[in-house]
Specification:
heterodimer, A: mainly alpha, 10 helices, 64% helix, 2% strand, flat, B: mainly alpha, 18 helices, 2 strands
């Protein structure tokens, strides 16, 4: 008897909780999460397949990063909108359908406007569907939060992913071929053809391993290491700022005066 | 209370790491001399650059990791890696190739995994493979052995230094194919015809001019190590036997499909260097006796497969790395029986 009475109360609790959350939503926290503390590529290590496969040059990285960001924001928006009308049982299939729809739309967009890049990225555009970062955000954030925070979360997570992808692409392109921003016309039109920078000069022997999958793993590993170094420093700095415990004897006197 | 420290009664002398490593370096001397005799100053230059780079990068990482620097430098393991890499690289390779290879070996393949004893892959071979994949042109440019060069001369010391440090084409006039290149490049020609057409092969006693002596010299050095009980015979012998069997099986009577005779495979490329100096690496190889036999045989088979049906003329490095992957797996299934037990018991056995 008691159970039936108390059930509605428990059911109501998440909604009340959510309302409370919505009122005190912390956008800077969301941004920091997406860009640094919970970065999909460096911390969650999600979406490694495209991260490692197409980050051979800046233009590829930028193309795929933007596409992923678009899908991530779109899916976060729709998932957030339908969060109260989809039951737990069909939650995941619904998310996957939404993500697939956005991926298809993005693929068609790229086919229409950046056809050569679309051909270069090939299978990795449809594979955005399987990018765990997107399903992860839908499940962990968008389906529990209202529209605006979900959009911000999608944008920031997408941006975090895009920035790591860009860093990877730049480092690998530089090490592998000696220049930067080659073939940017694929994304920015003919005017961008001369953006190409020959950093190491014409005689640079291409260090092909950087362009191959092992190079992607190595560079990702170093990026993660660098991030950990920064985090460690920050932790040390905060620890140093904390008030130091009072020095001196902590022995407690339990009896009277001892002479 | 103090305990007397002594080794077990059946070990007659104490072997420490640096001792073993020094013996390995000493044992490469015959091979080094043979290489220098046939190919000139290049090997010595390789050796100098690689050793200096190895010691510097090892010291750098040890400093970063706040480890005692001299202690680890004195165990000579970085030096062994440098020596093995230098002997495997083609002489007169540009200096930056050697530096990149050595830095990769020491920092990436060894120190990033935690240093000596923790690296799952043979450091020298990782360096070699990274170079081979990245700079195929420079890595397959060998010069003709001295007995075959046009005027019976090798590049002088000055020419060698110019070739190594200024990236010029000073030694281009001396370049030639290796015996394994020859067999790879001819298609649809009888083995006999290849041998009769190529001075590198028909002036040779056993396999290929120069290369046969280099390999025999490494074999001699390896036998010294074997005699000193630096390693056991299982892995090298099983690798050489497997390579012999494979090449005998697919020799195909010297037809146009032939992969080359067993002697060619045993005495050219990096076969002997690999058999006695690379696959016997105690860190990255399998540890049990039975395991070492399987490990060696796997390498022998893979060397043949990649040499004959793969894209690269020589394959020791790839074969070693592939079997390094498999070494823990092999160890898991070849655990020896402990004295007093009726059968081997796995340490990781599941308990219900």
């Amino acid at each position: 008897m008691n159970d039936t009475v108390s059930n509605p109360v428990i059911d109501d609790a998440p909604i009340a909780d959510e309302a409370k959350k919505a009122s005190s939503v912390n956008y800077s926290e969301i941004s920091k999460n997406g860009l640094w503390t919970n970065n999909p590529a460096l911390v969650q290590l999600l979406g490694l397949c495209p991260l490692l496969a197409v980050s051979g040059s800046v233009v590829n990285a930028l193309g795929l990063g933007l596409a992923t960001m678009l899908v991530l924001m779109g899916s976060n928006i729709v998932v957030s909108l339908i969060r109260n009308v989809v039951s737990d049982a069909v939650k995941l299939p619904a998310f996957v359908m939404i993500i697939a729809a956005f991926t298809t739309a993005t693929e068609l967009l790229m086919q229409a406007y950046t056809y050569e890049l679309y051909q270069i990225l090939g299978i990795f555009i449809p594979l955005i569907v399987t990018n765990c970062a997107i399903l992860g955000r839908a499940d962990a954030f968008a389906c529990k939060n209202p529209l605006l925070p979900s959009i911000v979360d999608g944008f920031m997570m997408g941006l975090g992913f895009l920035l790591v992808l860009l860093a990877l692409g730049a480092i690998r392109e530089l090490l592998g071929t000696g220049h930067l921003f080659a073939d940017m016309q694929l994304l920015f039109g003919e005017g961008a053809r001369h953006w190409k920078l020959n950093i190491f000069g014409e005689n640079y022997p291409s260090f092909i391993i950087a362009l191959l999958p092992p190079g992607a793993f190595l560079v990702t590993g170093f990026l993660i290491a660098i991030k950990n170094v920064f985090d460690e420093r920050e932790k040390k700095r905060l620890a140093a700022q904390k008030a130091k415990p009072v020095k001196g004897s902590k022995r407690v006197r339990t009896t009277g005066v001892i002479n | 209370m103090s305990f007397m420290s002594a080794s077990s009664p059946h070990t007659r002398q104490v072997q420490n790491t640096s001792n073993v490593m020094q013996w390995v370096i000493l044992a490469t001397i015959p091979g080094f001399l043979a290489l220098s005799y046939f190919f000139g100053w290049g090997t010595l230059i390789n050796l100098m650059i690689a050793s200096a780079t190895a010691l510097a990068s090892e010291a750098f990482v040890l400093r970063l990791r706040k480890r005692p620097i001299m202690h680890y430098l004195c165990d000579c393991s970085a030096l062994v890696t440098a020596v093995l890499l230098a002997l495997a690289l083609p002489p007169y390779a540009p200096w930056w190739i050697i530096v990149v290879g050595t830095v990769t070996s020491i920092i990436l393949a060894k120190q990033l995994y935690g240093g000596l004893g923790l690296n799952p892959f043979n450091p020298a071979m990782v360096g070699y493979v990274v170079l081979l994949i990245s700079f195929p042109v420079e890595m397959t440019r060998w010069i003709n052995p001295v007995t075959l060069s046009a005027d019976g001369q090798l590049p002088s010391l000055w020419e060698s230094l110019v070739a190594v440090f200024s990236n010029s084409s000073a030694v281009d006039a001396y370049t030639g194919a290796t015996p394994l290149d020859l067999f790879k490049n001819y298609d649809g020609t009888l083995a006999e015809q290849i041998v009769s057409q190529e001075p590198l092969l028909n002036n040779a006693m056993l396999a290929g001019v120069g290369w046969e002596w280099v390999n025999l010299a490494f074999l001699a050095g390896g036998l010294v190590l074997l005699q000193k009980k630096i390693f056991t015979w299982h892995a090298p012998v099983s690798m050489l036997v497997a390579l012999t069997i494979m090449s005998a099986l697919f020799y195909d009577g010297g037809s146009s499909n032939s992969g080359g005779s067993p002697l060619l495979h045993l005495l050219s490329g990096g076969t002997m260097l690999g058999a006695f100096f690379i696959i016997t690496d105690p860190v990255s190889s399998a540890v049990s006796t039975k395991g070492r036999i399987i490990y060696g045989a796997g390498i022998g088979i893979l060397i043949y497969v990649i040499r004959v049906w793969g894209n690269y003329p020589d394959a020791v490095a790839f074969a070693v790395l592939l079997m390094n992957f498999a070494a823990p797996f092999i160890d898991y299934y070849t655990l020896p029986r402990t004295y007093g037990h009726s059968k081997a018991e796995r340490a990781t056995r599941k308990r219900d």
